[in-house]
UniProtKB/TrEMBL annotation, chains A, B:
InterPro entries the UniProt entry points to: aa-tRNA-synt_IIb, aa-tRNA-synth_II, aa-tRNA-synth_II/BPL/LPL, Anticodon-bd, Anticodon-bd_dom_sf, Pro-tRNA-ligase_IIa, Pro-tRNA-ligase_IIa_arc-type, Pro-tRNA_ligase_II_C
Annotated CDD domains: ProRS_anticodon_zinc (cd00862), ProRS_core_arch_euk (cd00778)
Domain Aminoacyl-transfer RNA synthetases class-II family profile: 233-462
This protein's name: proline--tRNA ligase
Source organism (scientific name): Australozyma saopauloensis
Catalysed reactions listed for this entry: tRNA(Pro) + L-proline + ATP = L-prolyl-tRNA(Pro) + AMP + diphosphate
Region of interest (Disordered), ranges: 622-650
Amino acid sequence: MALEQSLAALSLATVSSPDALATKTLIFKPKTAKNAVPVPVLVFALASTETPSKVIASAAGVKEPRLARDDLIQEFFSTSSKEVSIANLNASLAGKIKLLVDSAVLAAEDSILELSTELAKAQLPAKTLVDFINSTGIEVTSVDFAAEASAAPAAAPTQKAEVAKKDKSAGKIEDAKLIGITVDKVKDFSSWYSQIVTKGEMLDYYDVSGCYILRPNSYFVWEEIQNWFNIEIKKLGVQNSYFPMFVSQRVLEKEKDHIEGFAPEVAWVTRAGSSELEEHIAIRPTSETVMYPYYAKWIRSHRDLPLRLNQWNSVVRWEFKHPQPFLRTREFLWQEGHTAHLSQEGAMEEVDQILELYKRIYEELLAVPVIKGKKTENEKFAGAAYTTTCEGFIAATGRGIQGATSHHLGTNFSKMFNISVENPDGPEGSRVHAFQNSWGLSTRSLGVMIMTHSDNKGLVLPPRVAQTQVTIVPVGLTAKTTKEEREAINSGAKSVEQSLRDAGLRVIADYRDNYSPGWKFADAELKGVPLRVEFGPKDLAAGRVTAVRRDNSKKYEVGLTELATRIPEILEEMQVEMLENARADFDKHRIVVDEWKDFVPTLNAKNVILSPWCGVPECEDDIKDSSATKDDGEEAEQDERAPSMGAKSLCIPNDQPTLKEGQKCVRCDKPAIQYCMFGRSY
Amino acid sequence: MALEQSLAALSLATVSSPDALATKTLIFKPKTAKNAVPVPVLVFALASTETPSKVIASAAGVKEPRLARDDLIQEFFSTSSKEVSIANLNASLAGKIKLLVDSAVLAAEDSILELSTELAKAQLPAKTLVDFINSTGIEVTSVDFAAEASAAPAAAPTQKAEVAKKDKSAGKIEDAKLIGITVDKVKDFSSWYSQIVTKGEMLDYYDVSGCYILRPNSYFVWEEIQNWFNIEIKKLGVQNSYFPMFVSQRVLEKEKDHIEGFAPEVAWVTRAGSSELEEHIAIRPTSETVMYPYYAKWIRSHRDLPLRLNQWNSVVRWEFKHPQPFLRTREFLWQEGHTAHLSQEGAMEEVDQILELYKRIYEELLAVPVIKGKKTENEKFAGAAYTTTCEGFIAATGRGIQGATSHHLGTNFSKMFNISVENPDGPEGSRVHAFQNSWGLSTRSLGVMIMTHSDNKGLVLPPRVAQTQVTIVPVGLTAKTTKEEREAINSGAKSVEQSLRDAGLRVIADYRDNYSPGWKFADAELKGVPLRVEFGPKDLAAGRVTAVRRDNSKKYEVGLTELATRIPEILEEMQVEMLENARADFDKHRIVVDEWKDFVPTLNAKNVILSPWCGVPECEDDIKDSSATKDDGEEAEQDERAPSMGAKSLCIPNDQPTLKEGQKCVRCDKPAIQYCMFGRSY
């Protein structure tokens, strides 16, 4: 049972607090005699507490506790390892399991605890939780892991390893500054990412699960995307507009294939003030059904075509999967373009024009390389004739990610909504249905940008879209520095600031005297400021500044007289090199695999794959199943963080390797008709 | 009982159709012998059907039917004249009333009818309605008003007048072109307005009641406002951001005074897909309670102040009052700024800076004059220390309208949400709460602009914000025109088009040969294009164009060589004069009234009033009650469209007339402390 439901079932009220203490629930299976009923050990501890299995073993009085497999967890807690938590305890388990609770939890009586499963988080008062545990009547063994651990000799490596894997603190960066990122991008990507986005002040978590606050540092990037895209689509004759966020049930469900894809995620307004609404009203998950009845009304003649409207809005898809900042959120910002054309050629041309604009947003603004291609039948947009896409790649996890999609809807919707005109080229009175497109790019693009460039020091933002492009830090001021020197440095820094502003750059200068330059450097690095400009006594003497690039720490000495030209050049170099580096990464990890035996190993080595493929949907399903990590426990223990999902088809790239004569499908015996890009994905 | 409820109670399913036939429900009281129980006559007809009382009299067999007063309507239909409709019939009325139904309604069996009350509209199939009427068992008299009317001699003027007042077709413009506006702005403002916004393609009605579609013609104006305002607020150090549209019940209700103002209008999401949500989630009616918990988290030290965030979003207030395009809509677009300051002076200074920006948006962009002032205690924003406002005026109805508000919140919210920092100037460890502001401008501003400038030919848009500033129309092409001449005209028009584009103007040219120039003129006038540029044989010969201003039809002859300078000048003149004219109107109708006896008459003459006032809330309530039109029937008959509401205080203008020595309050005997602006309002 999922966390939210469990808590609801227990009617444990959740709360929300920025200071909640993270916790973990671990379930171990001790070594048990054949045929004996195993007695699992459930360990509930602060996430920050090390819980070596040696300590668990002695506290629980068992041998060689190992992380329990799914079947055991199902048997005892009737839920999966992904969803199990302390909230799955119940009276019927009394006597059947052993329960170890971190003494630090019991001591934290007045604080808020955060329960986590792989799929969800929830916060509630420690007291509520302890009362609940006691209410189950299960005997609680309090364990002071810290003390025990230091007392006990080092556990055997394998065991320690197991626990370490479950314990997120494994990814800890040894010398991390307090204000900085404390986990390693490669070792613990998901914790790293949530630190990056929050400490980099891109967003903050919100008390409605799955919703996030876009702070100025990220919203500015979105505004830059909006400004650029608006100019380009207006050149194509697209106009902006705004349609209501609400859609009536009757209308929403008009296009059956289409709504099937969204129905489970639609949020419904059923009440206003204290009165129940007669008809329940949906919040748009996308606006096809909102807009097209009016297209039918407005489009009276072929002269009204093409009709090209775009809107910048937010849509709501109430996913129950684990939400992730920018990538999977219940409300997200996007633009959605909806156009109607007289000729299919015209419509299809636009699909490609828009896809190219999306590629340019990723590559020219966000410095993120993408591959243009077409979705397979399985993966296309519900209701579309075909879907084109820009696919990105997150090197740190080896997973593909859909960047933006441009759909040709054919006449699927225009027939449903009767968007038709008299055929100017047909016989008197004959009518034709409009050919339609819809296309969208969302704030997910910001997540891809962040995951691609950022590092263990914090965010790395491409100069073109960074709210702050340059930060100026006076340096070399010590106790010995004379008042005159100090003034000279500060006023010098101020004039540097001014000349960079005059050059049209977005600059801040950090003159705070209660922070050391080192602290200011770390702060600017955390927030992803592309260029740091230092100005100290040496610089003053030499009539220059020292500039340091955020992405590679490369140092430049720039004369005060050439600031206005040289600094913008450096920023442009950085923008270009960030894209080149990311592209090199993507290219290195996009591997052609012709034979199935190499498929899964290549996938597990954090690559996406280009394989010859037959194009048959069933074969695609088979590839997905066959490439999923089998849940045989052992493997799960070897790398607990490896995504167990199978490889999805990401796209059929426009840019195709040439098929060999008589090349077979990578998976089945049918002949391959094209190369398809497969990968684990977000 | 309100229309929606009535229909719900009858479980009559409503529908939505752009082609619904408007209807009217009229209730008449025949001349009755003293003490005899009156038998009201209910007439249900298509809105377009003339229903002279002469015909009603003969069909119902009664004498001198006159529009019934509220008390009678209450007695028989237990609802007000504002809310009565055919849906208020019920079996208990059988034999007690007479029911006349327009034969055109009975003939319209397959169409959709729109029921209207003064407060609401609803659409349902004619068949459903007829079945319902029959189900009441009330005897129906079918009347062919058209035939009867032409047969019957003209009814006595007074009677005819009465009916005409109720019948919206009274405002009809005689020679209205089919594509144009068919009702008069002064005679029937509300029908005029809904034609203006729809035929001018500013918006379209949407099938969720109270929601509207902003079409490119209006959204462009909003984008111009956004672009201008963003530049100005960023100069003040405001940053844009985006907060979720959802807020949990617990958080929403944290600030009691504040939420009281919104609770009845909050839309609640209770279901996602097929699962009920554990906690119901509100859609923001405004974002104070959404944002401030995070202000408390982010603001750690006085160095984090001021924090100034703005967001462009939509909010939802599920009003049950009669919705009106732009002015009262259940979802609307706005910006909301929320700032926190260390010093109250700093906060209060910003309140004024923002209010001035709002004034400039109205006056410099929308050419709408506004009065800056302060709201009274009764009218201030819930939870604010004080509210400043820009108040506009709609001359056609003589009603004031709130343009935009800038609130100083004092520490009301910062105390509630504990937004506090250590006091840098206070003793060690002492803390101070932040002083906060919030300020907002919505798409309502577009409605004010439209109501102010537009006329019986259609929209009039101020040049600075018009999506299309100039339309070019080739003229003087007849059957006799030679091919060469035709080509010369068209290519000449094209080069005019190009040189105006090069001058940075937003231009369209209308070369369609299936429409006459006259039709094109009317079309451009309807859509509010500020300047029409005609180019015909005479112009070609004289090397000039003929430009015609939309607002006053003033003609200009502009040489081809001076297009790039002269046309922009003309547009600027127009922009300035539109504001001057609107200001003159406002000034003429803002009247100083020192004595109560002049108050209501001045109000009824479509003015707003400046009166010396004591500033006591109870006195304000008294003014409102005492200035409301008494519902004594007679008066209602004299001007059925006069708003019956009383005069609200609009604001205490910053710019005050000087109070006379010992001046008393206009209403009570207390001494006046200032002048206050009162008026009926939107």
